[in-house]
Each structure stands twice: as structure tokens, then as C-alpha cells.
Amino acid sequence: MAENRHPFEKARDEFISSLAPEDRVYYSPCASAADLEHSIQNLQCFADRRLPKSAILNLVKSLNQNLEPYFKVVEIFVSSNPELAALVWGSLRLILQLAANFTGFFDQLISLLDELSRGFHQYDLVLELCSKNPPPPKSQIPQLLEAIYRDILNIFHIIVRIFTKHNMRLKRKTTLLVGLLWKPFDTRFKDVLRNLSSHRKSLFEEISIWHIDSSSKEQARQAAMESNYQSHHALSISEVAEAQKERELCKREREFMALERQESSSAREQSNTSLVQVQGTLRRMQSGIFELNRDHMKAWLSPPIFTDALDQARALKQEKTGEWIFKESKYQKWLNNNLDSTYGAHHFGSNVLWISGNPGAGKTVLASSIIDKLLDTQHSSKREVYYYFFEYKSTTNNSACSAYRSILAQVLAKNCEDENVLNRYSFMTCDSARGQTQLQACESILLDLLRLSLSSNSILVLDGIDECQDCEKFIHSLLGIWETRHPYIVLLSRVYVADLHYYIPQQNRLMMTESVLSSDIRIFSDYEIRRLFTEGYMPPNSEFQQYDMVQRIVTGAGGMFLWARLMINFLRSPYLYPNQRVHVLDQVTTPEGLEVMYDRIVGLIHQSGGYGKSLASMVLSRLVYSAVPMSSRQIHQSLVAEGLLQPDIPIHSNALKEFEDSIIMACTGLVERTILSQCPEFLKNESSLRLIHLSIYEGLTTRYARPSSLLGGSLTTIKIIPDLAISSLNQATNCLKQILFHTPAQPLSGTLPGRTHAAYVYEAFCFSDYAAACWLAHTESFVNSISQKNLAYEDLTIELTSSICGFSSSLELFLRTPRALSVWLEIFYTTEYREIDAGKYGHISANPLQVLVLWAKRVGTRRPVFSEHLMANIGSFIAELHEVLHTWGGTLRETPQVIWDEMTAFFRTRGFFWSSGSTRVSYQQPLGPSNVAALQPPTALLSSTSESGEMKAVLSIWSNTAFQDQTLKNKAWSLPGNEFFDLYELCTGWTATYELWRLQPESLLIGEMRIQLLPCELLPPMRNYLHHRYSTEADLPMSIHPNLTTFTILRTVFSAVQKPDKSGYRCIFCPLQSMVPELVNYSWTIPLDAHRRPDTYSTSFSRSMNHVALLEWCATGYQYITVYEYTQSSELELVKRNVMSFDPGVVKIERVVFHPTRPLLSFCAFWTFRMGQKNDAFIWSYCEGPAECFILPERGPYSPVDYSQCGQYFIVQERLFKTHFVIQIPSKWLNPSGNAVLYDVNPNAGEQRLTLATPQNSDATQLGFVSPNLASFNQVWNVDHNRSTSTFQVQASASGIQLSNSTPAGSQVATLVRLPTWSSVNETTQTLFLPQYDGDSLKISIDVDTQSLSTQSSYQLSKAGGGIQPSFIERDPRFVFSSNTTANLLHTSSSVLRLPYRGNEGKRGYDNMATENEGGPSTTKRRRYT
To answer: Tag placement on the chain: N or C end, fewer CB within 10 Å?
Structure first.
């Protein structure tokens, strides 16, 4: 019976049998999509709104709409029953039920199912086609329908495997079939979708072939047979005989080869060897696939370094200690899940154990013992152990999210070849909906992965719960994981964690009492006391007291392992004599507690004297109050900067170890060695120091008067480190000293331009990176701390007053030393500290200095805290720092070397930061008329620079107050339909200004004209402005002739004429005649068609002639190009030279381009017809009449680019693919003559074919493109004999102004100057003026053209503003780092500027530099590098 089953039924049964038994319980067929929708409504996850019900219901409707025609097609070809569709809907319900508890997975699931739904479109058309004719008797259609059905079930099976339980022990053997190698989820899902698409395509082809006329197919078969017959008989008899003989020889050869293979044992061995090699290759391929995806998934998890904590705990463990826990009955019952605990809802159960203890009881070391024991037995017990240690001081190991990432990383490492685990991880790393990959997993995804990855055979050991910064949130999430998967959990923390008291029953708690810990402390103490005698710390005559000494340590510890460790470290102090050590132990008669132990240690440090006390105090204050963890080298250098250690002592590994030993001795065992892990990349695995326990941090920050009689002294107030306020201020001062006296006051790389890296800064100038990144953070910490005390100046202690004086002196020197400020800024944006905490160190913040000034003003009402000069300098520096961040922003992150080069050139006022003098910038800011507000920007702005670079014209249009009213449009559009809005007020009061600036040698305004615009000219653009309800822009065309004396505003040509007395300029004008009739009607009403495109126009000047072109586009579709010639005498006169008109059907012409020397006009037109479209390029000799039309390839609209430098070619560009095409100008037009005629363009006029100019292979010598013989240019095109284009082009981007040299052989780019963060850089054009002699500067004129914002829009012109103004940049060519080709063009070499190294010269070298700006910001002297 099984063999007679229908193939569809076989696919159904295979899918059901593939489900795990526990998942098969949830499965049941679903009759229809309506039943599925009803089931979704009843799911709890949708009822409580945890998941988007509307999204999944819409998805079900989409699937039903697309799948229903498919099943109806199946019914036509296969006698099926409704169970086939019911299986699909039931499987989908199963998937939704399994995924309902994993909200992080649900969005991903919807995306995948939506992609599946899209694969079944157009089946309604197939159904309609198949319903008209009976199915063919023999066809592949049923098999293809079955394959598609299997694809659907295969997709469901893949998704179900993501959410099913497994034993996490699945290992599969490598197979010989490469196709069976494991693939990531997204790859396998896409493979199935490709199969589905392939089967769908084959199905559609079969159905199409089925409907081909049978007679046509028969004729085709007969024709094929006839062709084969004729081809066969075309062979001669001899050819047939030769072919037959050849076949016989081949047959005998195969027989001999087969016989030889059978008889040859060597061949069999070779075959076996090949098989082994193939298997090995497949195993390596599988391992490579696993490793590649494992690395990708690990990067996606981004776990912190969590193994160091376990290694450090193991190092502290004394042999034979910690064994008591394994004998505890509660631990054994927990391990066997036999704890007698009755728990209610939302409480942990019997396989969760909480081990609590007082501070210093040894919980972390005990956790390492439990982990090691469990790891030793995990293979035999078939359990997997995962762990995590929370650390209070670590910025990356003290959060719940870091614990999730670490545990999941361990799951991935232990199941790196488990396909189920890899499937789940890869399922979430890929975002199919957007076709992208998530860079890092979010917390909700991590929790869902934990609930899927952990099982009842998993064991979690979590230490330091009380040190988790979001402890309450973590415990709640952990409870949710336990309720879902029931893993074994061991929690270790202090006693006072309230949530653990609430969620964990009393029977599940185990207290680390003195009775159970005393035996371990005795073992530890006995071993350490014997070492003290062996190493000579104890007097030999007291050796008989060893047992008594051990007993006293056990008694004094009172069950605190940390106390015993501290006592042993205390006894090792070099400041004690042997008899003193015995005396200290003799005084221990009762349990003392950690506070007494800390008093003893602090008292010893205090009595150690000047150098030892200062060393301990400074190191401890850095370990307690440092902004980020410091390496031992950084601590050492900070002490050098403080003057406590001698400078210029090389710190190698041995010397560094000696330094750490001396610190440990000076601190009497309060610190220990460690390795940095959660830190910038260049600091990882660097040696460091840390406090040995959290309680030491708590004790040091709350120190008060202690009796020191334990050491024979009297009662004194002992405070080994200053409080937070003083420590923060001292560390800020220390950082400033490092920057001032121990960091080279020059670019760190020693070159300009040049960039260094964080690792180099750390190696060459250790501690400068920390100082630059954190001195402001320490300043802010001081202000926050001291502000809480609300003290007056008279209340400040002597120690605090001394710290304030030291800080103010260093800060004052820092602010009047430009080089130190610049190197500080460069280090800050070079170091990787800003990557740790983007909110705190991502960008420099002036807020600490601002709050410092406010505090100083509040406290110093009677007596100033800082001098008036310093307060003024701080205020000015804050303003300049704001300008730096506002002006340069992200550029500082990308290219910190700009600080030494272009940064200060763009400041309006220069003061604090050092200026190289490499760049000078002048601004040609337009001045508004008297009736315009001072800060109001012009409504439209256009500037142009003369070819010599000596002059610049700035044309601005200033609107009236009505146009500035933001509510104007709402008022107009709110009128009733039968009322009109009066536009006259909107069109009056507009003013234009035309300014002429002299750029060299200094920027100077030499002429200004103000023009009152006529209301009738403003009527069309204002009418169009109101037509676009939600646009805030107005279309106000302008243009300027290259000679700067003639310009256009709207439809009027103006010319600037110097007055006879040369006292200024006067303006003459003449209007352009429009081809589009206009009615002067100031009444406006709401348009019936709000989307109708308005009438627009633009003007363009010839570069070498007195010709101006008016390009008009009418809303009816007509277009006109009119060329005028203007003459200038006492008045301005216009003569119409020619007109070209276009009927509707041509897409709006973008712009027209004049030939540089001839009366030629070129442009591109895109034609649309009912049957297609066409691209044409026109070259129009407007003085002679007709235009030449050149057909372009039908790819899309084209844009005119420019003429070649020789003037013989016209270059156009395809807008989408940016492909260039070259058109040769007919030679007859290079010397034009004739009269103007009116010419109407016919789309079917005579045409000339144009071939694509593709780049050809050329010599390497062609890469060195010959520089243009020009003094200035913006874009220069050259065309070779193959019509390949080469160009020199100046263009601006967010990063700066570049000079690009593009040839068929390649491209070279030189950054001429880096620009500030200008928001509207796309509204500028740049002209480059090359150096004309040695020592001449490179000049770049930046012109603003707000009309260039949108080249394809008919109605968009940005208001001026945008952060950009017309400007002129002079640049030293030596500061331009360029290739050899561009270097020749710029008259400079490609080498960099080498700077004299001013390394660690100490105060003597620094004092020489400090004289640069002794007078403060107002007397800064600029120096150039030599």
C-alpha cells in the first residue's frame, strides 16, 4: 500500500515524520486560511500584544491569496484532496506556535514567510490558462507541481528545526556529497527559494509548450528529422567507413582499459587513496565553512573577554581548598535535582542554587572550583557548563547583556559543528527583509537565543550577581530563561541581593559560614606562614609558634578569606621588622573584620614615610578614580609627569615587573597584577594593576579617623588617598602636565600631511593618549563632586586650595600654548578611547569647562577662585572649541591631521590653536539691503569668478517679509474655493544685490548695485511657489557672464557700467522676450490639478561672446530655446539671433551648453512616443539655422557635459550609468556665418549615428595625462583619436576639494584642501587657479550656485544659507599630498613636509615654544613650517 501512495501524500508523510515527537503534539491539520486566522486570534502572544497581530494576519491573507490558485492548479492535474492544503496551513500554525515565545525572532520569521509568499504570484493567470483546455496525457507538469509542494514543506521544515529542542550532542559525519555540507541558514533558505523559482519557471514553460499548436510542433519535428537525414547522407561513403573504424578502435581501447583496471591492484590502491583524499578535502571544506561562519557569528555576538576572570580566580586558589562545597548536601541535591523546594509561579525551582557570603568570603574562587569540577565531569554526565563573572569596575563585564553574549559565545564554541545551533545563530544574523546583515545582536535577540540554545542539561555558574549594574533586570530575565528551558543554575553573590531573596526559596540557599570556610583558611594560612619563615620574613626563634600564628589568622579572619590574604600581604611589607610581624599576629585574638584590617594596612602605608606614602597614595587614587583602566606603563608615565619618578627611564618588561613589584609592596598587598582586556585594541593584553577586591574600593572611598595603636602609634586621622574632588582635580592636572611637558608639540607623525595611529601614540608617548582623552572627564568629575558639598571659598581646605592652584596654573599655561592645544586635539581624535564610550569620549565636550566656570563664579563671590584673565581665556576657548566641533565635526575623526593644517584657516577669528599658515580663506559674504534683517540669508544666491581669479561677482535676491511668513501658504490654501488670494503684496518689495569683489592680494568689496525687482516679473515664480503647497522653495533663475559685467535676474539682462567719475557702478538693463505668453493677474486660487508642473525657464551665457540663451518649458509640453545677442553702449540692447521650438513629447531639456569659442549651442533631448522612446543630442549653429541631430543609445536620459579642450568634440553622459559618449562637431560649423532663422525641430529629421566611445587599452605612458595649458579650470576634457575621454576635474565632497585625473588607463586623485562640515557642499562650484611661479600659492575659488541643487526637478531651488558662502582659498602647494601627475600640475613634488622633531625635551624645550603666544589668544603669532 505504501508504494501506491500518491507522491503528494509521500511528501506530506515525510514532513510529518521529520517532526520531533514533542513538536508533533502541537501539529494538527488546518482546514483553511480562515481557520488559521481564527487560531492566531486565540494565541496568547497576540492577545497580550507582545507580537504584531496585524502583520501576521496580513501575511496569512497574502499567502492564502497566492497559494489558493496553486492548489486549484494541482486539482486540475492531480486528483488531490483538501489535506494537501490543510498540511500547509497546519504547518504554518505550528511554526507560529513554536516562534510565539521568541519575540526577537518573529520579525525575521515574517520577512522569510513574506518572501515565500512573493514566490507564488501569477498562479491565478496559470489557473485561468489551464482551465480552458484539458490536461495533456503525458507531461512533466504533475512532477513539477509535486516538486513545488516539496519546496514549500522543505522551507517549513527548515524553519521548524530552528525552534525545536535537541540534545545538543548531534554530530554528523562528513559525507562524500558536497551538496550535503552544512550551509548557513540564509544560504540554505535562498537555495530552497531558488529551487522553488526554478521549478516555477519550468512549470510555466511546460504549460506554455502545452498550449502551442500541435500542428506547429509536428511540423517542427518533421523539419528536424528531414534536416538530420540530409546531414547524414551528406557524408561520403569513405567518411562513414572511417567513422565506423574509429568507433571500433575506441571500443577495443575501452575494453582493454577496463580489463587493466580490474587486474591492477595498484589502480585499486590509487582509487582508495583518491577516495581518502576526497574525504579529507570534504572534511577540510566542512571545517572551513564552520570556522568562517563561527567567526562571523562570534563577531555578531561581540562577547567581552570573559575567560580572564576564571583564570585569575584559578590563580588565587590554594590547592586542596574549596572541596567542602562538593560535600554539602544541598549542593549534591542540586546537582541531582533533588532539592526539597516547593515553589510557586515565577519562582526558581529545585535545580537553582544560590550560594551567598559576606564580602571577602572567597565566592569568586569557590565559583572557579565549582566550574572546574563540573567541567571535569561534563562528558560523563552529558551536561554542558557555562559561566560568567561580573566585575564591578569593568565597563564591559558588569552588565546583563555582556553575560548573555559571553554565555552564547560559549554555547557556540562547544557546539561549533552542531547544525541545529548553527542554524539558529545564522537565522538571526541574516536580515532577509532588508538584504543586509545585522552588525551586532540586540538584547532581545540574545535572550531568545538563550531560551533556544540552553536545555535542562545545561549548567550556568554565575558569580558576582551583586556587581551587575542592572542586577534586578538580569534576575528577571534569568527567571524567564529558567521557566522556558529549566537549566541548572548556580548563583554566587553577597547576602543582600533582595531579588534573590524573593525568587529563590529558602531550601535553595547555601550560606558560606565561618565553620565551612575555616578549614580552607587554615590550609591557606599554614602554607603561607611556612613560606614567610622560609623567605626570612619571620624571626627564626619564633618558628615553634607557627601553629599558633596559623590559628590566630584563622581566628582573625572569621570566615573571610580576603582577610587572611590581606594579612599575609601585610606581613610581607618591607616596612615591618620580623619581630613587628610577630607582634601584629599576637594582637589578633578575636575576629576583626575587614575594616580593622584596612586600618592596619593604611596605617602602615602612612608610617612608611614620604616617598612610599606618596607612591601608594598616587597609585591607589589612579586605580580608584581613573576614567578608564590604565596599564602599568601609563601609571608609570603618569608618575613621571607628576615628578615622583625620574623621566627618560626606558620601561622594558623586566623594569616594568620591578615597578609593579614596588607598587604592590608600597600598597601593602592592596593591589595585584592583572591583564587589560576590556580596552582599546592597542592596550589588550597589556600588564596592569588592580585592587584585589571590591571592598577595598569601598573602604578607600569612605576612609575616616582610625586608631593606629596597633602599630604602636597614637590616634590620628589617616586618609591615604584624597577624596573624589581632590583626586579628580589632581589627575586632571597630571594629564595637562603630560601634554605640556612630555608630548612633542608638533604633529605626532612628524610630517605634514601625515597621520599616525593609536598604537604608535601609546608606544612613543605613553599616557598622552589617556591624558588627552580624560583630562576633561576628570575636570567634570571634580565639579560634580565639589558642587554637592555647596561650599564657599572660605570653606575650602588647604589641600583642595592647593590642588585648585596647581590646576589653574597648568590650565592657564595650556591655554596660551597653541602647539599643546593642537597636539591634544590630534591625540584625542587619534586615540581609540573615544570608541569605548561614544557618549563620553566620542567627541570633545566643552561642558566640563562650562560647569567649571559656573562653579568658580558661584564659589568666588568674595574671593575669586581663578584669575580674571584665566576666566576670560576659558570663555574664549569654549567658544573656539564650539566652532571647531561645529565647523569640522566628523572630519576630525577621519583625518585628525587637519588640525595642524587647514583647521584654523576657516575660523573667522584665530586665537588658541596653532596655525601652520598653509591655507588662507577669505569670504565674500553678501550684504543685504537696509530693509532686510541682519541675520536673514538671501532667498537665492549665485556667485562667479573671473578667469584670471582676480575678481568675483556675487548676485543675491532678498525677499520681502511676506515671503518669510511661514504661515503664508496655509492662509492661501485655507481660502474657500470661490475666493482669491492677492499676490501683489507677495511680489513687491523684492531686492537684488550685485557685488563685485577683488580677490587678490586681499579680499575687498569694490562695487555694489541694488536693484528693485518688478512685481510683474516675480508674479510667475510666486504663483508657482503657492501651487506647491508643501514646498518652501522658489524658482528664481539667475546667471552671470564670465566677464562678470553682465548678468540676468529672472527674464531681464543687466549690465554693470562704471560711472564716469569712477565712484562706483550703475546698472543698465533690457528684458528678454518670452515665447510663452503671460497674463498679469495677481489673483490666485487653489489649482484644480495640484500636481501640474509649472512653467519654468533658465538662462545661460556664452563664454566668449555676447550671447545669452533663454530655455523655456511650458506646462503644455512646448519648449523653446531662444538665443539673443546683446550690445552695450549707453543702454543695453538685445537682438534675437535664433529660436528653436519643440512640440510636446520631449522630456524637459535640462540645460544648454555654449561652445567656448564658436556660436554653437548643444543640448540633449529625450523623446517619448506611444511606441517607444529616443535619445538625441543636438549641436546647433544658431547663426546659420538648422541643428544637427545625433542619435544616442536607448539607455535612458542623457545630460550634456561639456566641450573638449580642443573644441572639436561634444561630450554627453548617461544619467544612470554615468557612461560618456563623444560627438564630433562637424567641421563646417567651426567657422559659422549666416543669418538667424526660425527653425522647428521634427523628431524624424535627418540623423547621424553615434557609436559608444569605449576606453581602449593603452600604454602605461598614457596614465600621465598631459596637463592642460590653462591657468585656471573647473573641468577639462580631452578626446583622443579613439574617442576615449580623459579629464582633469575639480570637485568638492564632504571630505574636501579633490583634483581628479581620469584617463582610459586609470584615475588619480589629489585632495587639494579639506573642507569643514558644510551641509550644502553640493551647491558649490570650484575653480582651480594653478601656481604660476615657484613660491606661488594654489588658489581655489568656491562659488555658490543654489540653482544646481536639483538638475532634474522643474521646481526646486534651495534658499541660500546652508552653511556655505562664496569664498576664496589660497593654499601652499607643498601641503598638497598628490601623485606625480598632479604634483607636476601643481608645481610641487609628491613628497611630504618633514618637520623638525621636538620630542621629549622636557621643560627647557617647551619653554621655547611657549613664547609663541605669551600674550594670550589676541597676540597669537603664526609661523610656517620650514
So the answer is: N
Lowest-confidence segment of 15-24, 141-150, 722-731, 1244-1253 by average pLDDT: 1244-1253
Among all chains, which residue has been given the C-alpha cell 544612470?
Answer: 1216
Number of other residues whose CB lies within 10 A of the CB of residue 792: 12
Per-residue pLDDT reduced to its tens digit, 1265-1299: 333 444 556 677 777 777 777 887 888 877 788 88
Is 894 exposed, middle or buried (CB count within 10 Å of its CB: 0-12, 13-18, 19+)? Answer: middle
For residue 1343, the cross-strand partners are 1325
> What gap in Å lies between CA 95 and CA 1055, rounded to an integer?
77
Cell of 478: 534569568
Candidates 327, 304, 311; CA nearest to 364 is 311
C-alpha cell at 736: 595637562
> What is the identity of the amino acid at 1097?
Y
String of DSSP letters for 521-535: HHHHHHHHHHHHHHT
Higher pLDDT, 622 or 191: 622
Mean pLDDT of the chain: 76
Residues 6+ apart with CB under 8 A from 1191: 1174, 1175, 1176, 1247, 1248, 1249, 1250
C-alpha cell at 345: 509561579
Handedness of CA 349, 355, 356, 359 (dihedral sign): negative
Cα–Cα distance between 602 and 886 in angstroms, integer? 49
- For the four alpha carbons of 550, 555, 557 and 561, in that order, the dihedral sign comes to positive
Pairing of strands 1209-1214, 1275-1279: unpaired
Q: What is the pTM of this model?
A: 0.69
CA angle, 834 then 837 then 838, to 5°: 70
What is the distance between the alpha carbons of residues 37 and 1229, in angstroms, rounded to a whole number? 74
Q: Which residues pair with 122 in a beta bridge?
A: none
| 1190-1203 tens-digit pLDDT | 887 776 788 888 88
C-alpha cell at 186: 540564509
Q: CA dist 1223 to 210, 1146, 1152, 1219, 1279, Å?
A: 51, 21, 15, 13, 10
pLDDT at 759 over 50: yes
**1394: which strand partners?**
751
Alpha-carbon gap, residue 1282 to 1226, rounded angstroms: 17
Stated as kind and residue range, the H or E segment containing 1247 is strand 1247-1249
Neighbouring-strand partners of residue 3: none
Q: How many CB atoms lie within 10 A of CB 613?
A: 16
3-state secondary structure of 176: coil
The C-alpha cell that represents 223 in the structure block: 523539419
pLDDT band at 176 (very low <50, low <70, confident <90, very high): very low
CA distance 161 to 192: 15
Residue 64 vs residues 31, 111, 123, 306: alpha-carbon distances, Å: 12, 16, 12, 49
In angstroms, the CA 628 to CA 487 distance is 36
Supply the Cα-derived Rg of the chain in whole angstroms.
42
What are the pLDDT digits (tens) for 741-750?
999 888 888 7
Residues in the chain: 1426
Residue type for position 708: S
The residue whose grid cell reads 559674504 is: 925
DSSP SS3 for 1343 = strand
b/e per residue 1262-1289 (b: at least 16 CB within 10 A): bbbbebbeeebbbbbbbbbeebbbbbbb
DSSP 8-state code for residue 175? P
Single out the residue of 1422, 150, 140, 378 nearest to residue 904, CA to CA: 1422
CA nearest neighbour of 926 among 1042, 1068, 1032, 1038: 1038
Task: Supply φ then ψ for residue 9, to 5 degrees.
Answer: -70, -35
Element (H or E) spanning 1212, and its range?
strand 1209-1214
130 is written with which cell numbers? 489551464
Quick one: which of 1348, 946, 901 has its CA closest to 1151?
1348
User: Is 1130 in a helix, a strand, or coil?
Assistant: coil
